[in-house]
Design a protein that fits this description.
There is one protein chain. This protein has 177 residues and is an alpha+beta fold. The protein is built from three helices and eight strands; from the N terminus they run αααββββββββ. α1 crosses α3.
């Protein structure tokens, strides 16, 4: 049986490999002089990793610019691309989705965005909950590079820096208790 620490190690390696997908032939690590990863290896890791993710998500409808990896424990890893998948050119975020309820007291630390699992008329209509306590997932978005985010779905245009994006579509949940 797979242990939590084994699963965490595999997930950590997957997230590290995902970051390689967005790097040019000279990686950030190379720029710092500590690691050299051949471009062919970066491409091979990227192709292999993306092939393990699926488009089907825990949401209906699916997120048009996401791929999902079901961790089989009620959580998902995801890859968030710059555009809907048929037009995507690069990964802009990696992330984590944790099953939860639309309640402020149940919001996990570092998870800024809630998306309900009840069927919605469109992807963006599922942001937040429609009623306190509704089932869904809390999402955490981690930017893998610096990029310009256009204004969209209630967010202002801004420059995104690598790391945890605490301003990605924050959804303020109600108190349920």
């Amino acid at each position: 049986m797979e242990t939590r620490s084994t699963r965490a190690a595999v997930i950590g390696l997957a997230v590290a490999a995902i970051a390689l997908l967005t790097l040019p032939a000279t990686t950030r690590a190379q720029e710092k002089g500590s690691l050299e990863v051949p471009t062919a290896a970066v491409r091979a890791v990227g192709e292999e990793l993306v092939s393990t993710f699926i488009q089907d998500s825990p949401f209906d409808p699916d997120a048009p610019e996401h791929l999902w990896f079901d961790n089989q424990d009620g959580t998902y890893l995801f890859l968030h691309f710059d555009k809907p998948l048929p037009e995507a050119t690069r990964i802009i975020y990696v992330g984590w989705a944790v099953r939860g309820r639309w309640c402020a007291e149940e919001q996990p630390q570092g998870f800024t965005h809630f998306h309900r699992t009840a069927k919605a008329p469109a992807w963006d209509a599922g942001h937040g909950g429609s009623k306190p306590g509704e089932d869904g997932y809390w999402l955490k978005h981690i930017a893998v590079e610096r990029f310009e985010m256009p204004a969209m779905m209630g967010m202002s245009a801004r420059t995104i820096e690598p790391g945890l994006d605490r301003m990605f579509m924050p959804t303020k949940a109600p108190q349920c208790s």
